[in-house]
Amino acid sequence: MKSSAQKHQEIAKVIWNKPESHSYYRIGLACSTIYENARPGQFITLHLPGNLTPLLRRPFSIHRLIKENGHVCGLEILYKVVGEFTEKLTRAAAGDPIDLLGPIGQGFTVSSNFQKVALVGGGIGIAPLVFLADAISENSVCLSDSIACLGGRTSDDILCKTVFQSFDLTIRTTTDDGSEGEQGLVTRPLEKWITSNRPDMIYACGPMPMLRAVADIANKNELPCEISIETIMACGLGACLGCAVNKNETTEKYQHVCIDGPVFDAKTHIF
């Protein structure tokens, strides 16, 4: 699952920046051709030039690649407005410079052998799964036998539903308050679906309790599963211990989410 892409720092220009829903935005950034080698599940870090605060760079999953004449010319980031940095990011306009570093980390495994998959996303965890669906589709795999389970607290947190529908996926949505889809946990439709379908891979990204539940379901049913862990990162380069996670294997107790992940085999980690 190691990536061949090298990290690259550049000053990218904003292409567009627009609201996705009440709390979420999508921003398009022009980028170098190094992102031709980016893999779904990898992330980038951003810094706003001229801003002394926040001091640290902020990590974001690559949501989608922007292509022109078959070549990558930009990337999309889906983000939620949750603090000072993302609030400032909403004010970025077309042509503004943003300090971009990436692609970073290990991505999801994409294989033409995976003909039936399950995508499970909670809230902003849906962000890397669109890039993943793009990559699976480009790998000549039809997703009509696959499922996307999208969960959130309210209907405002159900993101990219129409995008996933364009892949002909079966879509199941859940919300905590019942404002869209089934009320309850996003793992419930996954459990129902696998009773009559045996996926070649389960992919998941979202809050840690959701990832624990998905991993338990996969392991209980002896299904392969890859999870993308969301965590606070102080540096994003493996120099600090801010994103260390437990590993099941006794030879290596801890790994860094930023460089060893963010995507991990669900069997190898303690949650």
Can you walk through the features of this model?
With 271 residues, this protein is α/β, with parallel strands linked by helices. It has two domains: 8-104, Elongation Factor Tu (Ef-tu), domain 3, CATH 2.40.30.10; 117-230, Rossmann fold (3-Layer(aba) Sandwich). The protein contains six helices and 16 strands. Strands 4-3-7-1-2-6-5 form a seven-stranded antiparallel sheet. Strands 11-10-9-8-12-13-16 form a seven-stranded mixed sheet, sandwiched between helices. A two-stranded antiparallel sheet has the order 14-15. The model has no long low-confidence stretch (mean pLDDT 89).
Characteristic terms for this protein:
271 residues; alpha/beta; Elongation Factor Tu (Ef-tu), domain 3; Rossmann fold; 2 domains; 7-stranded antiparallel beta sheet; 7-stranded mixed beta sheet; 6 helices; 16 strands; 18% helix; 34% strand; globular
